[in-house]
Amino acid sequence: MSESTGTATPDRPADLPAQSPPVDPAVTASLKEKPRAGGLSFWQGDGGEGAKRNLGLIGVLVVLVVIGAATRWDLYSNPDWVWGNTLTILKLASVVGVVTVGMTFVIIGGGIDLSVGAIVALAGVWATTLATQSYGAGGMIFTAIVVGTAVGVVNGVLISYGRLVAFIATLAMMVAARGLAAQISGKQTQVSNNSFINGIASTDVLGIPLLVYILAAVVAAGWVLLNRTTFGRRTVAVGGNPEAARLAGINVRRHTLLLYALSGLCCGIAAIMLTAQANSAQAAMANLYELDAIAAAIIGGTLLSGGRGTIVGSLLGVLIFSTITNLFAINGLSTEAQNMVKGGIIVGAVLIQQVQFRSVTQFFGRQKATTSG
Amino acid sequence: MSTESTPSGDSPLVEAPADTVAGEVVLRLTDVVKTFPGVRALDGVQLEVRAGEVHCLLGQNGAGKSTLIKVLAGVHRPDSGQVQWRGEPAHFANPQAAMRAGIATIYQELDLVEDLSVAENAFLGHEPKVAGFVRRGHMARRTREILSRLGHGEIPPGRMVRALPAAGKQVVSMARALSHEARLIIMDEPSAVLAHDEVDNLFRIIRELTAQGIAVIYISHRMEEIREIGDRVTVLKDGRTTAANLPARETPTRDLVARMTGRNIEYVFPDRPTAPAAAADLLRVEGLSRTGEFADVSLSVRPGEIVGIAGLVGSGRSELLETIYGARRAESGTVRMGGRPLRPGSVGAAVRAGMGMAPEERKSQALLLGEPIHRNVTLATFTRYARLGFTNAGRERAEAERIADELQLRPNDVRRAVRTLSGGNQQKVVVGRWLLGDTRLLLLDEPTRGVDVGARAELYRVIRGLAAQGVGVLLVSSEVPEVLGLADRVLVMREGRMVREAPAGELDENTVLDLVMAGSLMEGAPA
Amino acid sequence: MTQPRDLSRRRMLFGSAAVGAGVLLAGCTSNESTPTAAQTKAADNSGGGNAAPGKKVTVGFSAPAADHGWIAAITNNAKAQAGAYSDVDFKTVEAGADAAAQRAALSTLVAQKPDVIVVLPHDGKELNAFGLEAMKAGIPVVNLDRAFPDALAYRLQISGDNYGMGVAAANYIVAQLKAKGVSAPIIGEIPGIDSLELTQQRSKGFADTLAAAGFKVANRRPAEFTADSGQQAATGLFQALPKIDAVWNHDDDQGIGVLAAVNQANRKEFFMVGGAGSKKAMEDIQADNTVLKATVTYSPSMASSAISLARLIAQGKGMSDLVELQVPKVIVLASETITKENASSYLKLGF
User: Fold this and answer.
1) Where are the beta strands (DSSP E) in B51-123?
2) Under the cellular component aspect of Gene Ontology, which terms does the record hold (chain A) (predicted)?
């Protein structure tokens, strides 16, 4: 068995979707090494490690809020403002948050979706053409969701049955979907005149914005889907070890397709939310959302190589980013500085995770050597 | 309980007379141990290599050869034991350090940069430079010198490596080794990618290198090559040296193979039950073929029967198993379960028909290493416990715990990540997966590789127990005693073809070894 | 197991639903918008002046592929204006995604030997060399908006006034606040893409003029010329400033999002000035039911003017109201301030 750490797996019939370039299994094995202390603790139960990481993220959020309070005490001293600001941060996070839920599934399943921003734009534009608007709010929502899902299905077919690398297939889709969006919109900003749609962004229910409910519903559905359904189990299996999943009888290709369709569906929902917020849609909207979503998933602890990740972690990742944006806004600081801090946080989060597992692997190696050597 | 022993004997390490090889000892490994989480890859390796010799390293897949190479190449650092290089204790912090010390490694999958030129590859990482600029002319000249030293002055140093045939690439790899002034060159199955006449050329080069005092560690499965080019042989099994410094030309092939495959542990098999009652075939394979892997294979397995396939690496046995399972698509032939033909190339169809497989490479083919044990155990069955798509965590956990108890999994906590288990317990998880659900036929590929003695006995017990419950088992193993001890009926496979089928009781280990090795492997072996 | 039959039936149902949705959606891409005709100058023959048909001329035109309403309006206006002249043969080339693509497109245009070329370059500096070449080859170049640095690279330069936009917006805001008697006003600014030179010029004009009145910008949250980014920038601005007196938003396209944010945050205590002069902004100003009270122009109508002037250059005529016999070399459009009072007269220039 030892040699399997060094030798490549034998050639298989190429009916697996192209996932990632071949890597030394020893390297992947060590990359997938989870932080794990010697003895068993309650953290090691179901999702325990995710919970531990999430506590760290909550800590980061608290630090950001403390910085905000320290720098703008004049604002933070007013409880009404704090409540309103919290809702504002949640609203700011809501669109990217919905996209990130889909992205988290795709990444856990061993893929990547670079086309999410473009899908949001295409679905938004398609839903706000004069022709679609003539069908009313129902027609617009239906259109956005069907367009988003359909584009996701195209991604999925290209990747799982066309055997394109996910990075390339979705990169192509990113370009193509924006092109189609520009074509449909005639490069104009399409104003939404539908008061129901626009109302989605301005309606509060029991003092909490509707957008926040939508985010909560999508996150809850995503959590249940990942942790309590066979779909979620397959996702983890397919991303963690596609060959093992296949040999256990899981239809890896069909599942991969479904993952991209799910991501597209989330983009369709997000398109409605963003259109409602901006009262309009245009081909350039949702710019770079793919990077925001990937970054949020990564700092939330989702493994870029697949097989591990949590919905709550991704949500916290999104909240951290929108809190930073808010922090810089209330202090009137430039967006350049804000982007540098965001970059730093991404690197920092990944570095901390690496340091954790490095020390753990070293510990593990020593323990092995001393107990059985 | 009955024990079956092997006839090959348990002779201690064979030390060759010191005068068989003249050169000084350049490399000496003493008790080298290397562990990875869950597996002890090297478990006390001894190796002695002299200047100017071709030292052959023999061992099955999983014996620890690759790990050993990586230790020597500076990729892995040993946990304990000593590496002496040219008389001094050596610690190679990284591959560059090993290179600088004069150890060059030519991996099976050549690590060349396809889109750089021959010269750039030969001097990759240590290009001759002046003030930061590569001296291209000088580099090309040096490369040409080295290539002609290798007898391949015809390869243009400026040619892209991509444009070269496999043999040419190998020459470039060797040129890189020589560009480092290597004193020891490790070649991992260099002949695997070469045609016959190219192998002759390879041997000519190796002879020239050794004549210059360079030592070569040569890894190959092909006995006739070892006979032709090797001076001494060291055999590895399960991470240990089972024989060292055997004379390459004189040692009988059967001795070598026995040391590779034979027992160095006691095989403990449960009592064989009375022969299963004749029943309709559970599995029936007819005329199954895949080009270059196996041809025209027919076999059958009855309920409750254990059928063993004996064969060496490369005989096509693993490929056959995966094809029956639908993980590879057969080019011709049929697979029937209970009389009904299976859709070719569909694992799902095979699993639905009641097949289960424990593949050869546990970690890369069967396990989600980071996931807890219970999720791995239920990987093929969680859908059955689910209702309306919602998993039933309680039921899954209970089933997994039942399996863990039944297989005496240690540690017996199903929430542990699978990666923390030993190889034997990991294998129990893989086999245990198919105890759930309604598996009627279990395909086992090297079920006991890298598995310790205790876990082996438990696995044997489980396999027998399954058969007693009417499950058919198709077992592939390169350990002949295991096949003979466990199976009711034995099929011998060689070079992609079935060469013998007989009840296990009618065969003994020597007969099987002879069949397995017949043909090329027997050539050159003293009678 | 009855599942397979079940499944196939489900698949068929799903399949027909998908086809139905596809057919329905395909019909949903139409956008019968009615652009541009308003932004041209009709070829008024009655006066007998410059508009009268003259020598037949070929006008080449190139602008970047637009992802933004303003540039889309530039191209549409140019086309429409050319269509208004019976003596103009209009040849346009798609300029692709970057300066290199535009250079390639322009060389094919030159090969068709037009009498004059109108160019809105991707980047004035990068395409300066093209201007020099064409001029040397005897083809006059009309440089639209983004300036060639070299004076020999164009026959006529016609552009908007970015600094002037900021000045005009600030002047309006200062006047309004002074009239209300606000002494230390809180002023917010929502610029477009912050790394662009034009954004920096606009902001500088704004800040300079405010400073002259003793005011300053309290917070500045850049957007990206898109409505969704405008909405987010405005939301951030409102969080930072619980009370605002005035806001200048650089771009009316992103202003759609800014106004949405105003609604969503329910903030009505301030007034806002827009930028560029879109039709929707003018309508909103005219209706006077939002915080948007004015907008300062940076009108794509300059493309129509450029075509008219290019025609005159090719025909060797001057501008009839000027004494000179030739078209001037540089024209900088004044940034005009559109308010409720004059909105009706500008509405036809909105894009």
Assistant:
1) 54-58, 80-85, 88-89, 103-106
2) plasma membrane
Average pLDDT over residues A176-202: 89
Q: What is the count of structural domains for chain B?
A: 1
Interface test with A, best of B39, B368, B410, B440 (most A CBs within 10 A): B368
Instruction: Output the domain CATH number for residue B230.
Output: 3.40.50.300
Look up the pTM and report it: 0.78
Kindly state whether residues C137 and C168 are assigned to the same domain: no
Q: Does residue B510 sit within a domain?
A: no
Read off the DSSP letter of residue A2. Answer: G
Residue B28 falls within a domain, yes or no?
yes
Asked whether residue B276 is assigned to any structural domain, the reply reads: no
ipTM entry: 0.77
User: Mean pLDDT across the stretch A86-107?
Assistant: 95
Of A2-6, A234-238, A260-264, B276-280, the least confident: A2-6
CA closest to A36 among chain B residues: B417
- Above 60 in pLDDT, residue C280? yes
Q: Is residue C220 in a domain? A: yes
**Residues A178, A187 contacting (CB under 8 angstroms):** no
User: What does the domain layout of chain A look like in residue ranges?
Assistant: 80-352
Residue C14 lies in a domain: no
- Tell me the range of A143-152, B158-167, B211-220, C304-313 where mean pLDDT is highest: A143-152
Q: Hunting for tokens 């100017």 — which residue is that?
A: B52
B388-416 residue pLDDT tens: 889 888 889 999 999 888 888 877 888 88
Q: What is the pLDDT of residues A23-71, one digit of tens each?
A: 444 433 333 333 333 333 333 334 456 677 788 888 889 999 999 999 9
Does B122 reside within a domain?
A: no
Do both C309 and C281 map to the same domain?
no
C19 assigned to some structural domain? no
Tell me if A187 and C72 make a contact (CB, 8 A cut-off). Answer: yes
Instruction: Determine, yes or no, domain membership for C40.
Output: no
Q: Based on the fold, state whether residues C254 and C130 are members of the same structural domain.
A: no
> Whole domain around residue C289: which residue ranges?
162-297
SS3 assignment for chain C: CCHHHHHHHHHHHHHHHHHHHHHHHHHHHCCCCCCCHHHCCCCCCCCCCCCCCCCCEEEEEEECCCCCHHHHHHHHHHHHHHHCCCCEEEEEEECCCCHHHHHHHHHHHHHCCCCEEEECCCCCCCCHHHHHHHHHCCCCEEEECCCCCCHHHCCEEEECCHHHHHHHHHHHHHHHHHHHCCCCCCEEEECCCCCCHHHHHHHHHHHHHHHHCCCCEEEECCCCCCHHHHHHHHHHHHHHCCCCCEEEECCHHHHHHHHHHHHHHCCCCCEEEEEECCHHHHHHHHHCCCCEEEEEECCCHHHHHHHHHHHHHHHCCCCCCCCCCCCCCEEECCCCEEECCCHHHHHHHCC
B33 to chain A: nearest residue by CA?
Answer: A373
Residues C194, C137, single domain; the answer is no
pLDDT the model gives residue B262: 62
Same domain (yes/no): C141, C191: no
pLDDT of residue C318: 83
Please indicate, yes or no, whether residues C135 and C190 belong to a single structural domain of this protein.
no
List the 91-110 stretch of B: residues with Cβ below 8 A of A. 108-109
Looking at CA atoms only, how far is residue A336 from chain C in angstroms? 9
Quick one: closest CA in A to C97, which residue? A179
Among residues A52, A327, A46, A290, the alpha carbon closest in space to that of A177 is found at A290
Could you give the number of structural domains in chain C? 2
How far apart, in whole angstroms, are the C-alpha atoms of residue B16 and residue B245?
A: 5
CATH topology of domain A80-352: ABC transporter involved in vitamin B12 uptake, BtuC (1.10.3470)
Q: Which residue range is the domain that position B255 belongs to?
A: 1-92+221-264
Could you tell me how many residues make up chain A? 373
Are A198 and C260 in contact (CB < 8 Å)?
yes
Question: Which candidate from A131, A182, A326 shows the least CB-CB separation from C239?
Answer: A326
